[in-house]
């Protein structure tokens, strides 16, 4: 979609003809939150939420220890007895899109979770293909199809809020996860701790590694998406406090070639870079290759739980850390929907733990034979059909 | 290499717009030497050429299409498709490299052939055909991979795009620069022969070529096939450079058209040299490197591309207007 738009824009420039085109919707991963005190560092910085997330990293979750997708941090339980009904159930899911590997792995995991439960007679999924208007009509259509519960992963926050409210008004329980909406009406909102915790964990690790005055390059995906902005806002703050020199913060648009070129340029400009901080780990391997190709030792690096990065980490004994935005969170909405339909309590805001992979836990998440873009924290290792279903 | 480019283009007659782009390129290369310490040695420029090689090769293919009066918007998605196909077929098996590379070249040629046949036989404007092809390839890649490429490129496959060999004095000479050099020579020779000249003539005045007995349809189809093959070669270099990615070709079609236009090749066809088109691609990469070294934010890249396209087309249009005025008086 974005490419089509680019081409239409390019085309219009080429023929010097006027053309009006909607701007592509950024996959906003927004959570509803009040504007807190703003920091000079970033308009996306909210001190109260930052402090809350950093504290949540050390909180002890409730729930089964070996099943983090069923755990919750500081849950406030809500009564769901009004939704109690007998099975089997039709559970419906309105998905924003499956347009990146993270969502791919998550969605496969979610389907596997639905298969695990005999009382789900039908798991109906509509994919909005990253279009707000399609998701609005998808949700209306699902509500009218007699779903017993509706799971929503909203494409954008503001535009989909009224649609979620409409679904709530129809009387069926609504479960929102991943990205949020500006309404309290869903029975539960499921998400990991958040972007501040992600960014701060990586930045603290790198600060320890490079020391005061060390040079760190920040590589970001794209501007304006709030969980991504939160990651950088937290990191920027940590680096500032610890006296780490940030030599630059560049956008890679998730393209390995762009990332590699940027890093090569910075290596020329700075001579040496001690640490690489990454927004998400997609381009981590290409970044490390830029150091290799320049004949330099790999830097301390923070990536993500993507297979190709974990593999390289293991093979080359990197100094690395992988904060995660776990894909196992896709299991939770299915579990939540069933709990609600059985009349069991669920947390109003279901905050999942967000593990950080370090060298000591690397082996738990690295599995030979998985595709390069697989995510290790899928929570799918014990599921039937693993690993073939995720390959 | 920049020197070589200059001398090659001096031997062939300097076409419209070749002079300005070479001047801009020279200024940028000198500026780079002041800004980046690495550019005080040949290896810095070789690294720049290595990075620019895929775009320069794409520019050769795009030049053939544009100079004969068409557009090829499908190259970016073709590059992505080729890299994704390569990763899936290779799947880490070194032995497979030998047959996958020819297969990729054939796929590129086939896509170009389809573009060319639909444009010339069904008379659909190339702009629309290739825009459609872009969407088809994009969609096909997405359907096939589900947004997450599978498999892995082999070390052998990546050698050409990533590695090089040591040369005394110069430092590491990347393989991609050798591939580029070979293609430059081939392209220049091709353009100096009858077929090449005929391509330019088609862009300038299709009817007169037709009346003169030229095979217009066949030649224009050939231009698209060459563009498809150049996309396949660029994909092999890009995949080698940075590894598997489903975003590798994003925006390349836009960037390569900017490069060709920057090289003074006139949109609509009929004017411009292939060397200048490649110089345009190198200029664009050098410009982005310079902006990056100066610490200018990445967002400026698109703006710069936009300004270049508008300015270059306006410059060409202004040239045409004064030409007409002179003739009428």
UniProtKB/TrEMBL annotation, chain A:
Any Pfam family hit: Peripla_BP_4
Biased composition (Low complexity): 28-43
Keyword ATP-binding part of the UniProt annotation: no
Signal peptide (UniProt feature, chain positions): 1-17
Chief location category: other
Organism: Prauserella marina
Transmembrane regions listed in the UniProt entry: none
Similarity comment: family membership: Belongs to the bacterial solute-binding protein 2 family.
The name this protein goes by in its record: Ribose transport system substrate-binding protein
SUPFAM superfamilies: Periplasmic binding protein-like I
GO CC, alphabetical: cell envelope
InterPro entries xrefs: Peripla_BP_I, SBP_2_dom
Annotated compartments: Cell envelope
Region annotation (Disordered) ranges: 24-43
GO molecular function: carbohydrate binding
Alphabetically ordered keywords of this record: Signal
Claim: rRNA-binding is one of the keywords in the record: no
TrEMBL record, chain B:
Gene Ontology terms, MF aspect: transmembrane transporter activity
Keywords from the UniProt entry: Cell inner membrane, Cell membrane, Membrane, Transmembrane, Transmembrane helix, Transport
Membrane topology: Multi-pass membrane protein
Top-level taxon in the UniProt lineage: Bacteria
Pfam families for the chain: BPD_transp_2
Name by which UniProt lists this protein: Autoinducer 2 import system permease protein LsrD
InterPro entries: ABC_transp_permease (IPR001851)
Subcellular localization, as worded in the UniProt entry: Cell membrane
GO cellular component terms given for this protein: plasma membrane
